[in-house]
Amino acid sequence: xxxxxxxxxxxxxYDDEAIMAxxxxxxxxxxxxxxxxPFDENALLxxxxxxxxxxxxxxxxxxxxxxxxxxxxxxxxxNAGETLGIVGESGCGxxxxxxxxxxxxxxxxxxxxxxxxxxxxxxxxxxxxxxTKMQIIFQDPYSSLPPRSTVGDIISEPVLVHGIVxxxxxxxxxxxxxxxxxxxxxxxERYPHxxxxxxxxxxxxxRALSVQPQLVVCDEPVSAxxxxxxxxxxxxxxxxxxxxxxxxxxxxxxxxVVKFISDKIGVMYLGSMVEFGNKKDIFDNPLHPYTKxxxxxxxxxxxxxxxxxxxxxxxxPSPANPPKGCLFHTRCPYATxxxxxxxxxxxxxxxxxxxxxxxxxxx
Length: 363
Ligand SMILES: Nc1ncnc2c1ncn2[C@@H]1O[C@H](COP(=O)(O)OP(=O)(O)OP(=O)(O)O)[C@@H](O)[C@H]1O
Ligand code: SF4
Ligand SMILES: [Mg+2]
Fold this sequence. Notes:
The chain is α/β, with parallel strands linked by helices. About 35% of the residues lie in helices and about 25% in strands. Strand 1 and strand 2 form a beta hairpin. Helix 4 packs parallel to helix 6. The structure holds adenosine-5'-triphosphate (ATP), iron/sulfur cluster and magnesium ion (MG). Adenosine-5'-triphosphate binds near residues 68, 88, 94 and 96.
């Protein structure tokens, strides 16, 4: 029994305030120790205890009265050429995490180590030099392209701004990239409205890759597209990854897509990473009850195999008012009294396979 659990008669009584104080203290100590560790030389991206809060209520003097923790205490490593798939229900913080890593949101805490440098406190000026190395592809290829520019101008602009190739080589460089992205050369003079969703997403991909990035955050890059087109875009991303040694942070609701493209998988719930590991470990041996429930909903292609779908009760709680204890306890089929009061520790259970659940710690 933990120090803050008091045995009264046969019943354990939890002192929530003391539990939270001890939890905060332990987290701070872990953070401090982790921040002092040397950076992993093999990782292109290392995220340590990343946090992003948004103020949601301010006083008339501008003081923050209430904040929403969109991303809380997330840590992972990603090597060059790998794909990390991020899954989780709507609102769990996937986009916020991706944007914070790219410094499109200023992190509220934690370290972002990109290519051996801690960029978490970089100014906009310092970021300018490495902006080209980190790009993003958005979900909606309709609103992310300027309607009055030609495809050629859209892809050429970042190449010219960042001086990727000499001016007289820009056109041939762009045409070559368009070819790699499956865009015909006569599209160069045409406008985005003339294209279908799949072709527009190819233009967005070409624009993102035009500056020769190392890391690309793909935020639901195929969910706005027809199912028949999705596979083509995923295959394109995969082949470009190979030829350009790209590292992807791939955000998606679609577990089948994530399974196909990822090397590692992170499962998020209410701003926290509840499970993380190699794809094979996560799919063959999911540890967290939330991951098990998510994966039980993947359609089974073999009609003879019965699906054992785990239906989660209740709605996702508001991140502005998260539950005490384990964030998942309000919906978890295995929740115990302890889960309602004591946050589980996020621990490595097998090599490279992390999860946060009391059930695992008790085994
Ligand atoms: N600029 C902002 N100000 C306040 N709250 C925000 C802001 N951006 C995101 N949030 C909140 O942060 C939480 C996480 O949002 P986010 O968009 O990252 O989730 P998501 O997992 O990407 O969801 P979806 O799958 O729907 O895209 C949500 O509760 C959202 O309302
Ligand atoms: S800690 Fe408890 S509530 Fe949370 S996932 Fe594990 S069993 Fe479920
Ligand atoms: Mg999102």
